[in-house]
Design brief:
By secondary structure, the protein is mainly alpha-helical. It contains 5 helices and no strands. Helix 1 runs parallel beside helix 3, helix 1 runs antiparallel to helix 4 and helix 2 runs parallel beside helix 4. The longest helix has 36 residues. It is elongated, with a radius of gyration of 21 Å.
């Protein structure tokens, strides 16, 4: 078993999947929290906080939406790129550019998942600390409501993609012994 055996690919995928699932959960939770918070504009501000106009929360909400949607797209891009790379990897092939690209893909994708989760958590924390005041006919408040709906839908997509990754991970772990004995490249 050399440095680029099927074992390397199996464990690289397992590492990516575990990191992705943790990051996807963090992003989905951030998306749901922000969606709930943004859907409730404050009509009567509290005495302890100075409410912010809705326009100030819109840019943060859009950034959070980008991070949550990026998390869903990351796993989809991973599947497409890994399928392409997987079709080029051959048993017995020495550590080539394709083999190294596969390992790099796993490392970059796992790193990107962590970065997206950190950025999403940062934005939701900033949104949670901001009380947004709005009126019933406020255009910016209506925009926040639409962003809130998109955040909720995007968080659901992240959960669905996460479920796919989880099912795939469970199937690999369930057959790990067989996969390791077979010594084929994924």
């Amino acid at each position: 078993m050399g440095p680029m055996s099927s074992t390397t690919y199996i464990y690289a995928y397992i590492a990516f999947a575990v990191v992705y699932l943790a990051s996807a959960a963090a992003c989905a939770i951030a998306g749901f929290r922000a969606s709930t918070r943004l859907s409730r504009c404050v009509h009567q501000p509290s005495l302890t906080e100075t409410p912010q106009p809705p326009e100030r929360a819109i840019s943060r909400a859009f950034r959070l939406l980008d991070w949550v949607q990026g998390t869903a797209l990351l796993a989809i891009a991973y599947v497409v790129v890994s399928a392409g790379l997987g079709s080029l990897i051959l048993k017995g092939q020495p550590a080539s550019v394709v083999n190294l690209a596969w390992i790099a893909l796993n490392a970059v994708a796992a790193g990107a998942a962590v970065v997206l989760a950190v950025l999403g958590t940062r934005e939701v924390t900033a949104l949670a600390e901001t009380e947004v005041a709005c009126g019933p006919d406020d255009r910016a408040a209506q925009d926040l409501q639409r962003i809130s709906n998109r955040l909720g839908a995007s968080a659901v997509v992240v959960l669905l993609v996460g479920a796919y990754v989880a099912v795939n991970l469970v199937s690999i772990i369930a057959d790990l012994g067989t996969l390791l004995k077979t010594d084929f490249l994924l």
